[in-house]
């Protein structure tokens, strides 16, 4: 037979303990719904939180990789644009030199063609000199290869070689005429035609190499984007709450809380029932 006591209400203590437990679960569920996370801090699940944080670090670091690749793309795009312009200018120069190689041409006409040739030649030099992005010029004399980050380690790089288009005497120059090249006779004009043919072939090959490098950067940028998406989804799988499930659980816990309050109220009324024994 249970002890009827006015000093100790075991039923009320049990009801209160159960109510407190339900309130704790209800608070945790509400927090998961509010934040959308089932693991919001290390207190929720230390191991999962650490794994998620490491992945978040990689996702953030990949932003720096994307920035590096995109800067590289812009640098190469400027170089390609300049290279294509140089190729067009060389074609025009070849036309002028070829016209000047006509032995039947009078002196005044040849001089006019030579003046046009010099203007185009100077434009080639200006185009090469101005082909810079963020201080990086892949066409000028002394240009160095482009190095873009490939991964979050910082050690792996995507390399695109510079294509030096300096005129004539520049080290590694692929344009074979000099800054002072011109013609004054049919013979010198004819010689320049051959020089220009070589330069045109070299420049077109160089622009093609830059195009290949640009495509490599775009391919890797696409990969980095997919890698970030995969990592982000992975983190979500680890820490995101199932809101539909939590919503259903919230309703159940709210009902359970109300029942707990009723149970506590009933347990607390048991002591007052003893008074009826003395009436």
Secondary structure layout:
Layout: H1 10-35, H2 46-100, H3 107-129, E1 132-133, E2 136-137, E3 146-149, E4 157-160, H4 186-239, H5 243-273
Antiparallel strand pairs: 1-2, 3-4
Please, could you describe this protein's structure?
With 279 residues, this protein is mainly alpha-helical. It has a domain at 46-239: f41 fragment of flagellin, N-terminal domain (Up-down Bundle), CATH 1.20.1330.10. The protein is 68% helix and 4% strand. The chain has helices at 10-35, 46-100, 107-129, 186-239, 243-273, and strands at 132-133, 136-137, 146-149, 157-160. The strands form two sheets. It has a two-stranded antiparallel ribbon. It starts with 9 loop residues before the first helix and ends in a 6-residue tail after the last helix.
- The overall pLDDT, averaged over residues, is 87
How is the quaternary structure best described?
A: single chain
Rg measurement, Å:
40 Å
Strands of the biggest beta sheet: in what spatial order? Answer: 1-2
CATH topology of the domain at 46-239: f41 fragment of flagellin, N-terminal domain
The gross shape turns out to be rod-shaped
**Which class best fits the helix and strand makeup?**
mainly alpha
The name of the CATH architecture of the domain at 46-239 is Up-down Bundle
What descriptive keywords fit this protein?
single chain; 279 residues; mainly alpha; two-stranded antiparallel sheet; 4 strands; rod-shaped
In summary, what is this structure?
The chain has helices spanning 10-35, 46-100, 107-129, 186-239, 243-273, and strands at 132-133, 136-137, 146-149, 157-160.
